[in-house]
Every structure is written in C-alpha cells, then in structure tokens.
Amino acid sequence: MNGWWLxxxxxxxxxxxxxxxxxxxxxxxGRVIHRGSSPDGxxxxxxxxTVYLTFDDGPNPAATDKILETLSVADAPATFFVVGSHVxxxxxxxxxxxxxxxxLGNHTDTHVKLHVRGPGRISRELRACHAAIQQITGQPVxxxxxxxxxxxxxxxxxxxxxxxxxxGWSFGVWxxxxxxxxxxxxxxxxxxxPGSIVLLHDGDGYNPLGDRRQTAEALPGIIxxxxxxxxxxxxxxxxxxx
Length: 242
Known about the structure:
Strand content: 5-15%
Shape: globular
Structural class: alpha/beta
Number of strands: 8
Helix content: 40-55%
Order of helices and strands: HEHEHHEHEHEEHEHE
Largest sheet: 6 strands, parallel
Number of helices: 8
Radius of gyration: 19 Å
C-alpha cells in the first residue's frame, strides 16, 4: 500500500511540476499576468472591454515594419517581446518600435527553452537581452515573457532581479503555422474575450529571417474586428504592478 501511495504522490508531484513548466499562465513559479481586467458594470455605463495585442520573436523587418505601419494608422498600442540577438541584428527596426511608443519586453537573448537551463544561463539570457534593448533603443525594459511560456523555479527570481513583470497570454492562434491571414484573423475573432492578452508573432525566435508576413497581413482585420465588437485596444503597460 505504501508503495502505491508513494508512486501516486510522485506522479502527482510530477504533474504539478509539469503544470508549472508548460502552462504559460501557471502561478506555481511566480505571478504571471495573462489577462487584463474585465468591465465590472459599475455605474450607469459599463467600461468598454479591453484587449491587448502582443507580438513575440521579433524584430523582423519584413513583418515588424508592416505591423508598425498598421498600428500607426489604427492608432493602436502593442507590446513586442523581442529576442536580443534579433534586436542587435535589426537595430533600426527595434528603434522604430520604441519610437512609435510601443512597449518592448524581454524574450531572452537567443530564444532558448529556459525550463532546461540552469540559473546561470537563464540570468545571462535575460541580462543580454535587457542590455540590447536598452543600449539600442534607450527604452526601459519592464516586462518579460518566456519563450513558449516555459518556466522553472529559476526563471521568476531572474526576472524579478531585473524588475520585470512576467507575462503569459490569454490565447494564441498558432499564427506561426502560417494558416493564412484570413484564418489568423478568424481565430482571433473567435477567441476574443474581455481582457484578453493576444499572442501573435512578428518574428521567428530561431530564424531572424523567418516569414511572419501572414500575421502582418491579418492585423488590420484583427483590429477592425475587435473594434467592431466594442473592444478598446490598450497597452500592457497599464497592467504592470504599480
């Protein structure tokens, strides 16, 4: 009986650890921001529902520049969780993100899977990306998102030492599979809920020249659909701890 109990306890512990590693919104290894607030209906007129656009794995001029143009025309904010090595490769694009007033967040220096790295490597990844963003754009870095959302007990402390809030997301739409711009748009429209933090991609974490043009082509329709449904696009900066 004790053997079965111990085996069950071990499986339970393993399942809990896996939840902490692979669920991008799990609080097991520290607080994660994965959703904004929803309107509470207080007062005569309820606040409009919000949505937050985020883009991972850039910068990548082929997609990022078009995304920035769309955001400018639509007067819409976004957060770009950038890879440090890509920032150094495409500094002008990184500067355009900052110059347009969008938030740049840390997405590690080489898009390494952090859950299989030790504390030293994790710290170096975050610090190198942090330095690249600050030195090239001059913008302070306040937020972090782990590649694939994978974390370990070492990730939260490394992020906190740099003063970061850790972000997950409410939903992604697998735009990296390149299902077509209209399909990307449809998936976002179908999943959108008040307070959603939407995960999209303007780059490829492993290939600085990866093709993310379908996401860029889908963005005007995504913004239009959200606004037609009554949503207000807001910056993730408003979700940062005060």
